[in-house]
Amino acid sequence: WKKGLVKKEYWCVVEGNMAQMKKRSTKEDDSSYTVSGILTRLDSSRSVVVRPSTSKTIGRLCQIQWKHLQTIHTSTKTLELISVKTSSGARHQVRAMLSHLLKSPVVGDLRYGFGSSSIPLPDQSVALHARSLFLPSVQLGNTTDIL
Questions:
Q1: Kind and range of the H or E run holding 18
Q2: Quick one: how many helices (H) and strands (E) in the chain?
Q3: How many CA atoms lie less than 13 Å away from 28 in the CB half-sphere?
Q4: How distant is the alpha carbon of residue 13 from its chain centre?
Q5: In the chain, which end has fewer C-beta atoms inside a 10 angstrom radius, N or C?
Q6: Per-position DSSP letters for 56-107, written without gaps between them
Q7: Which among 62, 114, 70, 115 has a CA at the least distance from the CA of 92?
Q8: Strands 128-136 and 26-27: what pairing?
Q9: What is the DSSP letter of 19?
């Protein structure tokens, strides 16, 4: 974990403007983007704050790579289904980075959401699904997809 060899992939539904999300990110290839930030824990709280990696804030440097999968139109708003990959795995990293840096909180996130995204889902969950875990192979040094 500490060497960054374990990678995780999440699928999540966010409330955000795709053009603005892309503008706030660095384009990696035809379909993926990255965003980096400094993650700090709030005193005596389980919440974290993420600031742009250009800030002089002391904390943990984190990065996510994201890719747009699908646009979802409802009667009241437009939502985006995205894939997010990370190798750092800090607590609340994905949720905080999407909300604080991309201004696109996960739907149903009461801790990091704002506006209509902070309205709880019927089952009180957040629209964030841990899809894959990539572990280094002991024999070959390659990664293995654990579903």
A1: helix 18-23
A2: 2, 8
A3: 13
A4: 10
A5: C
A6: ---SEEEEEEEEEEEEEE-SS-EEEEEEEEESS--TTHHHHHHHHTTS-PBT
A7: 62
A8: unpaired
A9: H
- Measuring CA to CA, how many Å separate 101 from each of 34, 36, 73, 95, 121? 11, 8, 23, 10, 23
How would you write the pLDDT of the chain (147 residues) with one tens digit per residue? 567 778 899 999 999 899 999 999 999 998 999 999 988 888 777 788 888 887 677 888 889 999 999 999 988 889 999 999 997 777 789 999 999 999 999 999 998 988 776 788 899 999 999 999 887 776 655 666 666
Which H or E run includes 38? strand 32-41
Q: Which of 109, 105, 89 is nearest to 97 (CA)?
A: 105
Query: How far, in Å, CA of 77 to CA of 116, rounded?
Result: 9
For residue 117, what are the β-bridge partners?
none
Count CA atoms within 13 Å of residue 102 on its CB side.
32
Nearest to 68 by CA among 120, 111, 28: 28
What is the rounded distance in angstroms from the CA atom of residue 105 to the CA atom of residue 87?
20
Within 8 A by CB and 6+ apart from 107, the residues are 12, 13, 14, 15, 79, 113, 117, 121, 126, 127
